[in-house]
Task: inverse folding
């Protein structure tokens, strides 16, 4: 039985030259996913009191969310689903999660540590981050285009997006395309189908 991979590569070399091989291979191995934008620089404190920046995620595929520990509505479901994603890639050092608290005055590293233990955070690359509220809001609303705001009329006094962002190894926000060829941009952290899509796309990037 012929080895068609070798035959194909041989034809590429014959027709285009040896220089074309890396480009041809890249075409078939690079994920066909949209580039939404580059993650801006950030620096916050995690649940262990360590300073974490965007450079700590360089070379990793990671998922981003904005939440707060006293959230009485969507955050518990979001983090239940995030744990499912964690478990899917448990043991892979090239995968991570960044959870930014939008209520940093309450969500100290100690509070975030207890929350992480309660929800079963078990991988070293899952950082629950706190810092200056203005910087976190700027990162959410401008850096990721994931809406957050203080609203005293809402349960918990905040409103925020329930979507997750997917970031590749180079710090670029990525997503799949919908059936019409448009980037979906973000993944609904409350929707089972979206969570499965996200898992597939993480594997694609990894």
Result:
């Amino acid at each position: 039985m012929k080895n068609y991979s070798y035959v194909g590569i041989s034809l590429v070399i014959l027709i285009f030259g040896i220089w074309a091989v890396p480009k041809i291979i890249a075409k078939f191995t690079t994920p066909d996913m949209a580039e939404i934008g580059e993650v801006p620089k950030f620096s916050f404190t995690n649940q262990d009191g360590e300073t974490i920046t965007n450079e700590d995620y360089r070379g990793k595929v990671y998922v981003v969310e904005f939440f707060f520990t006293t959230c009485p509505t969507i955050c518990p479901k979001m983090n239940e689903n995030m744990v499912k994603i964690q478990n899917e890639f448990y043991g892979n050092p090239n995968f991570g999660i960044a959870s930014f608290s939008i209520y940093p005055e309450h969500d100290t590293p100690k509070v975030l540590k207890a929350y992480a233990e309660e929800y079963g955070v078990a991988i070293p690359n899952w950082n629950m981050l706190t810092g200056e509220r203005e910087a976190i809001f700027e990162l959410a609303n401008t850096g990721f285009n994931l809406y957050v705001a203080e609203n005293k009329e809402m349960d918990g006094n905040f409103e925020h997006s329930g979507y997750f962002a997917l970031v590749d190894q180079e710090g670029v926000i990525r997503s799949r395309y919908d059936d019409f060829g448009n980037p979906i941009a973000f993944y609904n952290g409350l929707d089972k189908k979206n969570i499965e899509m996200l898992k597939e796309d993480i594997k694609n990037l990894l």
